[in-house]
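So, can you check this record?

>
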Amino acid sequence: MVHERSSSIFRLYDIRGVYGRDLTPEVAARIGLALSYYQKGDYAVGMDIRLSSQLLHLALAAGILAGGSNVVDVGAVPIGAIMYAALHKGYAAAYVTASHLPPEWNGVKLFKRGGDPMVGDEIQAIRDLFFSADLRPREPGYLVRADVLPEYARFLRSKAKATGLKIVVDCGNGAAALIAPRLLRDLGHEVYALNADVDPRFPGRGSEPVPDRLRDLAEEVVRRCAHFGVAFDGDGDRTVFVDDRGRILTAEQAAIVMLEGMGYGDVVANVECSMVLEELVRARGHRVRWVPVGRTFMVREIARGGAVLGVESSGHYVVWGNANMDDGLLTMLYFAEAAARLGKVSEVVPPQYPMVRRRVEVPDELKFRVVDELRKELEGKYEVSTLDGVKVAMDDAWVLVRASNTEPLVRVTCEAKRREVAERLADEFVGKIREIVQRLS
């Protein structure tokens, strides 16, 4: 019987845990079996380049087959290739990855036919099947192997128009290394590649492209007089950009560069995104369509149409109207076209306003009540949004308070045009939260 510890791996947006402790081949096979029971059909199954991904990928595919579904095994690919298979080839998809997490982690991301992510209630339904005593193998499906990378590369090339740029690309030793440097060279760019050897230990700078790990990239951009630099996470769906002056851009700053180069329109953004985005989009006669935090909400909103760009504060983007494909490689090509049109990226990078983040420990049984009590206190005093937690708009500042879905925490994010204001607001709202916790305890 699968260990009860496995219950914790089923999250809101994906399945993930530590390999060998929470996530084993036995667990992966049962996930595949449950998935096949939940939705029988044809599945593209792929993986990132982590050491444990090969074994988990084989076990997952075996489970899907045992549930009566068919499997197209695409092997190790960037996650964009799996999204492509789901959106353009008509497969449902399962991809073994832990994205930006450390090497000991792994997980599974799931997609329906057409590329819409399986999340929330869908993952919980798979979890219920996973623990069901009635879950047993049935007449197996068939397995074929397919090399999807050449077709995916052709798709990417069909979108790209820019050529002749100097680009520094930091693959982070992850799945993007399988295609990104060669793709850019094939398009006629002069490419300088960092951490471009696939290595499941992520020895170069780790799997997460956070600013303090991107100094080498920033220095190389300046040294090479490059037009820009780009860094990927472990599976290639997140991107971080560096301008020609070596400045590491926030997601919102990168989005503005793309809008300046490719043209403004309505933008989909999550509630954590900087107010600089809304200021500049509104100044050009368009609007920001706000969504909750989580790439799925951005992807689904932009699929409704009418927006030119989707941006998540974590570095996910949807470009060229490719609904359901928040693909880092597509984003890189879109940014390159914007850079080619602009000449110098640095000339259009907007200011970065100070943002302060705090975490307050709150018991799981209280955290959502605390946020709701805070909402009651604030309504009538401020302009309050409850799209995702509680967001309070003020003059030249805002505060967002959200209960964590996975930890006994309430998160506070504050942005203001002056750091001292952001710090003061963070202190004030942390104090309010602690007062409410004390009152409810």
